[in-house]
Amino acid sequence: MSEKLTFPTGFLWGGATAANQCEGAYDADGRGLANVDVVPIGKDRLPIITGQKKMFDFEDGYFYPAKEAIDMYHRFKEDIALFGEMGFKTYRLSIAWSRIFPKGDELEPNEAGLKFYEDLFKECHKYGIEPLVTITHFDCPMHLIEEYGGWRSRKMLEFYERLCRTLFTRYKGLVKYWLTFNEINMILHAPFMGAGLCFEEGENVEQVKYQAAHHELVASSIATKLAHEIDPENKVGCMLAAGQNYPNTAHPDDYWAAMKEDRENYFFIDVQSRGYYPNYAKKAWEREGITVEMTEEDLQLLKDYTVDFISFSYYSSRVASGDPAVTEQTEGNIFASLKNPYLESSEWGWQIDPLGLRITLNTIWDRYQKPMFIVENGLGAMDTPDENGYVADDYRIAYLAAHIKAMRDAINEDGVELWGYTTWGCIDLVSAGTGEMKKRYGFIYVDCDNEGKGTLKRSKKKSFDWYKEVIASNGASVE
Ligand code: P53
């Protein structure tokens, strides 16, 4: 019985962040400008993220939250000490590409940027924390966008390869878990953030997206090849914005719609994990007049260098319908879905479904039989500190506990192989979807508001001690 309640020995508990959402210091020590810096908070945010509008001007009166964020660039020692205190076994973070190659196409890296992450990784190891590094988390140097059109260009393969070679060589022995592209399927929903894509009037947007996706998929294989060559200890994973699609009713049309929606997302992982393009995608391209240029060498790379493990984010399940009259959506930003009447929602309209995590884990396991890593899960909520500055975030504890139980069941009852779990935004940070600071996920509260005002002081929420206990008991404390 007690055996049922724990996790495998060595299970990697931890938390996750992304460079641009927490580092700030956007122009420090030679860092170049990136797409993620030039997306302001406010009503014009979404059209930029989704590639419908260009606006890159810090002087336009908008607030650009990524410029300063929570200034982790200067405070990482304090923050990692807090992660260490919680007992983190792993910390997922991302590299800001433009710290390493400020423009993206230089031949030599920026030493100050390399040194920053070296210090950060060493700090992690002081506490026995294994870094899990996302090579690109929605970021692309602006120069690569202006000069080459971002991932629509094949030239990106060369620049990304150079970035990877630099990272794998420099951080050999310090990092062994790597993710090539954060939420690679988000390229379809948020092409500017996902791949630095901006579109010209009248062009075939889907074709451009899939061409860029092809470049990313090949780049991912090149990264896997290099990582294994440079250090056989390296493990490379893909990363999917996951969440099972449910049919809205038992109508076969609804089941078919859900399957199609799932395939749109699994398409990327099918290639990264199986090593070839699935027939359903090739047929769809044919039907839709999409021609993706690819070489024989590309296809060989995809085949020879598949990922070692599959990582994903999970916030919610989704709903699909084959009936065009069914249109009621959740409020979820960017990646909205039809509303599920059986589920509660967060303050941002994201529907809460712990069993959906177990279902998603099982689906991915059945589809690929590769080890999995949940690298994002959490509740974005409004926190109100009491007069002592303390946040009693029982709602966050409830969300996380329910999801931890679901993954414990998937491991113990269903036998899926799961390496670890990193909660999203283990310290409060800027929201990727909305640019808000008040949409908080952390165990650690950061005194900063939506306008960037505040002391940036860190303080422990109630969930801090709760999560510490979860890790110490290897999950057994979750009732
Ligand atoms: P925020 C949309 C849907 C699912 C995952 O999101 C998403 C998004 C983009 O908003 O992104 C991931 O901050 C992403 C993180 C992001 C996190 O989910 O909008 O990898 O960068 O912060 C949560 O609440």
UniProtKB/TrEMBL annotation:
PANTHER family: 6-PHOSPHO-BETA-GLUCOSIDASE (PTHR10353:SF296), GLYCOSYL HYDROLASE (PTHR10353)
Molecular function as annotated in GO: 6-phospho-beta-glucosidase activity
Record-linked InterPro entries: GH, GH_1_N_CS, Glyco_hydro_1, Glyco_hydro_1_AS
Top-level enzyme category: hydrolase
Enzyme nomenclature, EC number: 3.2.1.21, 3.2.1.86
Gene Ontology CC terms, in alphabetical order: cytosol
Gene: bglH_3
Residues annotated as catalytic: E376 (nucleophile)
This protein's UniProt keywords: Glycosidase, Hydrolase
Pfam families linked to this entry: Glyco_hydro_1
GO biological process entries: carbohydrate catabolic process
Signal sequence bounds: none
Protein name: Glycoside hydrolase family 1
Record-stated family: Belongs to the glycosyl hydrolase 1 family.
Origin: domain of life: Bacteria
